[in-house]
């Protein structure tokens, strides 16, 4: 259960990061509200997962999901460059996160 909550918290990190950008420095109401709600859900989920998943693993997985999700969102919606090197680096992050989950 903790791992599922951790993954959802990582996804919420992507949501709050993209909502923060869309809020234009917190000057637009609904993106700012989405930012705050997603931030609270993300932090709550992370803290719940840390009850059973080690802190270093929890944080690395949470940040990894957020980083890859936010970068992918930028590539799809904001036309950020999707070069081979960038995709390789994102793949390395995913590999590291999966390794943290399944390796002792």
Automatic annotation (TrEMBL):
Keywords: Cell membrane, Membrane, Transmembrane, Transmembrane helix, Transport. It is found in: Cell membrane. It is a multi-pass membrane protein. SUPFAM superfamilies: Multidrug resistance efflux transporter EmrE (SSF103481). The keyword Cell cycle does not apply. The chain crosses the membrane at residues 27-47, 59-76, 82-103. It holds the Pfam family Multi_Drug_Res. InterPro entries: EmrE-like (IPR037185), Small_drug/metabolite_transptr (IPR000390), Small_multidrug_res (IPR045324). Its main location: membrane. The keyword Iron does not apply. Belongs to the drug/metabolite transporter (DMT) superfamily. Small multidrug resistance (SMR) (TC 2.A.7.1) family. PANTHER family: GUANIDINIUM EXPORTER, SMR FAMILY PROTON-DEPENDENT DRUG EFFLUX TRANSPORTER SUGE. This is DMT family transporter. It comes from Streptomyces anandii.
């Amino acid at each position: 259960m903790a791992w599922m909550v951790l993954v959802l918290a990582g996804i919420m990190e992507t949501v709050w990061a993209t909502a923060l950008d869309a809020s234009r420095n917190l000057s637009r109401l609904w993106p700012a509200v989405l930012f705050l709600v997603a931030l609270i859900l993300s932090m709550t989920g992370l803290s719940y997962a840390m009850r059973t998943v080690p802190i270093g693993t929890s944080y690395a997985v949470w940040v990894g999901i957020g980083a890859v999700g936010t970068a992918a969102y930028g590539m799809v919606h904001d036309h950020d460059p999707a070069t081979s090197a960038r995709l390789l680096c994102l793949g390395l992050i995913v590999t590291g996160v999966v390794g943290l989950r399944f390796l002792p």
